[in-house]
Amino acid sequence: MNFPIKIPKKFSFRTRLFMVMISMLMISGLLILGSTSIQYESQKESYHTGRLFRKEAQIQRHIDHLVSKNSLFNQPNSVWKKFELDFEKINKIHNIEYSLFNIDGSPLFIYHSPLKVIANEYSIDSDILNKIQNSDDGKYLEEYNSDIDKFQASYHILKDEFDRQYAILFFPYFEDISFSENELNTFLENLYQIYILLLIGVMFIAYFLSKYVTRSLEEIRMRMGQTGLQKKNKKIYLKNATREIDSLVNSYNKMIDDLAESAEKLAKTEREQAWQEMARQVAHEIKNPLTPMRLTIQSFHRKYDDNDPDNKKKLNSFSKLLIQQIDTMSEVAEAFSDFATLPKTNKKEYDLVEVTEMALNIFERGNIIFSSNKAHIFHQLDKTQWTRVITNLIQNALQSVSKNKIPQIGVQLSSEVNETIITIVDNGNGISLELRDKIFEPKFTTKTSGMGLGLGIVKNIIDYHNGEISYISTPKKGTTFTIILPK
Predict the structure, then answer these.
(1) 369 lies in the same domain as 432
(2) Which of 146, 242, 300, 314 has its CA 20 to 30 A from that of 51?
(3) Can you give the pLDDT at residue 230?
(4) Element (H or E) spanning 351, and its range?
C-alpha cells in the first residue's frame, strides 16, 4: 500500500528573518531576567554576609571590653556568672541574641540555641569545634535550615590582647528579605511591561524591515525566473542596495554576461557544425568525378597522335587547362574536407626551426625575415600540418599588403622554459575593429577570391596541438599573429 509522501513546507526568507528578530528579542529578555535574578541573589548574599560580620565585630568588641575590664581570662564559669547581667545587656544594646561558649564548647551564656546545640546539651558539637579550630581565622559559618529555625550562624574564637583564646562566640543572623523581594518583584513587573511593549514594537518593525529587505531578493528571483539561454536577458540595477544584495546583483549580472557568452559560443558551434556538414557533402560530391576525369584526360593525352602540329598544340592547351581546373576543384574539396574533420595528426619530434624554414622556402625570401633565439627547438608536432599553418599565415600576410607597397614579413621563434612563441608580423592593411571577432570563423573572408577556410583550418590545427593563437592588428599598419605551443 502506497502512502503519499508529505514534503515539508519551506519557510520563506522573509518569515525566517521575522522569526529571528522576534526570537532575538525574547532570548535577550530571558537573558536580562536571568542575569538580574543572579545579580540580585549575589548582591543579597554579599549584603547579608557583610552585615553579619559587622554585627559580629560590634559584639566581639563589647565582649572583649567586658573580659578585659573584669579580668575574666582563664576564670572558671562561676566567676563569669557574676557578670551575667553585663553580658545580657549586650542583647538589648545591639538588638540581637547571641551565646558564649568556652574553648572546649561548654556553655557560658546561652541566649539563643540552635537545635543541634540543644540536642548536644547546650554544648558545641565536636565536629563543629574541629572546623572552628582548623579554620585560618578562627571563624566558621553554619547554615541552619530546620522547620523551626532557618538562619545563618557564625562561630568565632575570641582572643585577648595577647592573642590568647578565651571563648567562642555564637552569633545567629536572621535575614529580612521581605523588602528586597518586594523591590525585585516590582522591578520584574516593570521589566515585563517594558518588554511587552518592545515585543509589539519589534513585531511591527520586523514585519516592515523584512518586507524591505526581501523586496530586492524578490526582484532578483523574478528576473532569474525569466532568464533563458535563447532570450535577451536584462541586467538588474538597484538603488541604495546593501553590500550583500549588491554583491548578489553583481553576481547575477556577471551570470547574464557569461550566459550571453555561452549563447554566442553555442551559436558559433552550431554554425561550425553546419559548415562541417556542408563541407562533408561538398567534398563527397566533388571528389567522386575528379579522379576518373584526370585519368581519362592523361590517358587521352598520351595516346593522341601528335604528328599534327596544330592538334597537338590544341590538345596540350586543352588538357593543361582542364587539369588546372580539376586541381582547383580538388583544392576546394580538400579545404572543405580538412575543415570538416579535425586533422589526423601524426605527431613526431621535429626541429621547429628546420620545419618552419622549409615552409618559408616556397615564398620569395627577400620579403621574409626569419629569426630564432635558438638554433634548434624540438617539439612534438605534425610536420605536414605545421607547414600548412605557416603557409596559410604567410600567404594571408602577403595578400594583406596593397599592390603599391613592398611586403615586409617577419617570422620569429622564441624558445622559453615551458613554451615556444611564434610571431608573424606583416605591414599589411590590418583588420578593422568590426571584423576582428570573425576572422577565425569558417566561410569568412575579406578577399574577393578564396573560400575563407584558411584561418579556420589554422586554428583547428593549433588547437589540436594544444596551442593558442591570437593577434594584434592596427589598421593601415599591419597585423601580428602570435602562436604559443606548450612544450
Answers:
(1) yes
(2) 146
(3) 58
(4) strand 348-351
Q: Which residue has the higher pLDDT, 265 or 391?
A: 391
- pTM greater than the 0.85 cutoff: no
d(CA 232, CA 125): 96
Q: What is the pLDDT of residues 128-155, one digit of tens each?
A: 888 888 888 888 888 777 665 567 788 8
- Burial code of 132-162, b = ≥16 C-beta within 10 A, e = fewer? beeeeeeebebeeeeeeeebbbbbbbbeeee
Q: Cα-flanking dihedrals φ and ψ of residue 108, to 5°?
A: -105, -60
Helices (H), 375-440: 383-399
Q: Are residues 307 and 353 in the same domain?
A: no
Domain count, the chain: 3
Residue carrying C-alpha cell 587521352: 300
Q: What is the residue whose three cell numbers read 524578490?
A: 218
Burial of 99 (0-12, 13-18, 19+ CB in 10 A): buried
For 35-75, how does the pLDDT look when each residue is reduced to its tens digit (9 = 90+)?
Answer: 877 777 777 677 777 777 888 888 889 998 898 888 888 88
- Which of 176, 174, 175, 156 is CA-nearest to residue 166? 156
Nine cell digits for residue 426: 606583416
Residue 321: CB partners within 8 Å, gap ≥ 6?
Answer: none
Closest CA to 451 of 364, 360, 338: 338
